[in-house]
Amino acid sequence: MAEDPSSCSSCSELPDLEEMDLGTNETEQLLIDYRALSLGDPLKSYDDDAFEEAMQLRARALNAYPEKLNTAILLLTDAINLCPCSALMLMSRAQVLFDIGELAAAIRDLKAATERSPTHVGSFRLLGKAYTYLCHYGEALAAYQKAQSLDYSEDVAELIKGLNPKVEAEKREEAEAKRLFEEQQNKASAKAQEKKEQSFADRVYAEVETAKSKGGPLPEAFRVLDNLKSEAQSLSASTAQKLLSNNTTAQAMEDPEFTRKLDEVAKDPAAAAVHMRDPKFAKAFMEIINCFK
After folding, report:
1. Angle 34-105-20 from CA coordinates, rounded to 5°
2. Cis (ω within 30 of 0) for the bond into 66?
3. What is the C-alpha separation between 72 and 81, in angstroms, rounded?
4. One digit per residue, pLDDT tens: the chain, 293 residues?
5. How far, in Å, are 11, 40, 212, 213, 231 from residue 255 at the CA level?
6. Where does the signal sequence lie (predicted)?
7. pTM of the model
8. Pick from 95, 149, 93: which is nearest to 126 by CA?
């Protein structure tokens, strides 16, 4: 029978404080995933007695730190579980995590603290500091500004002053990265369109060559060429509107090179075998054919 995962020691949660002899080497040798520490139940309410107990756990944790890091972390985690909406408990653990360089874990605690207690100035200030260390200047500035709106500090004002040019530089870098990305996307799109048009031109060219070699009729699109001259002489308003409202045909008709090639095809449809290899000509030519249909 397969082992129940919940009974596997490697899968189990950290033991309760009551089950451990805190401060021993065994406790300090535990491998703790700081990014998965309990944040407590945000819907849980607590009374004064629970808060007093949490404060005692916090005091023990601060006494244990830094010599006994794991002990401090576990004590603070238990304090958080007792009072999940206490920004003080969350910020206290975040401070320890920040001190040991676990910035992502510290930010996780601080975000929970600011969400559950949006007027806790200390949490916003430490959050700004953590983001600054990660070079996330925009987030750092937002956290510091929120702290200032709650309780103004000259020291934080100086930090904000130093952050402003970094935030502007960050915005410029983001804008440049976006521009380069869009430029690459546009180039890729243009290349795909060019490939599509070339494929179309090659296909029509092949049809013309096949028809010529067999002495058969030209593709349907070219069989209407004989009618173009007569229809152009008495161009209807609707056809003229189609030609003028189509950007491709309107631009093509102003291109002397295109009109020269079009005249050659009108005189000798077989000339299309040469000119249809030009994707630009092929596209405009087929648009004109469609306008007369």
Report:
1. 30
2. yes
3. 14
4. 333 333 333 333 444 544 455 556 787 888 899 999 999 999 999 999 999 999 999 999 999 999 999 999 999 999 999 999 999 999 999 999 999 999 999 999 999 999 999 999 999 999 999 999 999 999 999 999 999 999 999 999 999 999 999 999 999 998 999 999 999 998 888 887 767 656 655 665 666 667 667 766 655 445 444 455 455 555 556 666 766 677 887 787 778 888 788 778 777 767 777 787 888 888 888 777 777 66
5. 74, 72, 28, 32, 21
6. none
7. 0.58
8. 95
The span from the CA of 76 to the CA of 37, in Å, is: 10
| Burial grade of 280 (CB within 10 A; 0-12, 13-18, 19 or more) | middle
SS3 at position 181? helix
All structural domains of the chain = 48-173 (1.25.40.10), 217-292 (1.10.260)
Residues with Cβ < 8 Å from 266, sequence gap 6 or more?
A: 225, 228, 229
**Two structure tokens written together for 223:** 């069989």
Question: In this structure, are residues 97 and 105 in contact, taking their beta carbons and an 8 Å threshold?
Answer: yes
Q: Give the whole-angstrom CA distance, residue 87 versus residue 54.
A: 12
Q: Helix, strand, coil: what percent of the chain each, to 5?
A: 75, 0, 25
